[in-house]
Amino acid sequence: MNGQVYLVKSLNTGKIETYTYGKKVYQSAIKKQPVETPLFLSKLGFIEDEQAYEHHGGENKAVCVYPYDHYDYWRPTFKNMVESALFGENLTVAGLTEDKAHIGDTFSFGDAIVQISEPRNPCYKLAAKYEIPSLIVQVRNTGYTGFLMRVLKEGMVSVHDQLTLIERVSDDVSVALVNDVKFHDCFNPNKVEKVLQVKELSESIRSALQEQYETGKKKGWG
User: Fold this and answer.
1) Confidence at residue 106, expressed as pLDDT on a 0 to 100 scale
2) pTM of the model as a whole
């Protein structure tokens, strides 16, 4: 399995802009654009990529990845379909879907080394971007969320670099499984225990999943 290579279709960054959705006024850098030139990837992500809110960034959420494999599924949904950064991701990648991506999977990417930390959490900004109120529910139901990465080693990267798997810490805990526990089978003790035992899982989602399980109340995940 180590050495598996995944093609980076697009490397995307964005600037913070102000948007209006219904009565809500918000800031976001979700409308990212492809970048062809090499960029420095730091522990906090790409310097050129702005974050409107603290909980959208940080060391465990430095890089957002979305599988290009899902683009065809979404084509009938969007009137203004794009071929990169459809979900505001930094990396649009071919072949690395949620069922094949595992928490703790570590990849070389140019001069950098990155590691999968948690699923991406769909929020209202996706619905606002495309003016589709049901989009968040659709993303949760399909499990086509994408995922987030932390940066273990900083370095220069470009769209011409590939993601090459160099270590897998668990064959059992895929991003798809975490999404299942998060949104659907929330109170299955075997699944919850399996997910929580992977130390590479981001602490924020670990705490949230544990709280959800112990209280017996599904979280809103907004």
Assistant:
1) 98
2) 0.93
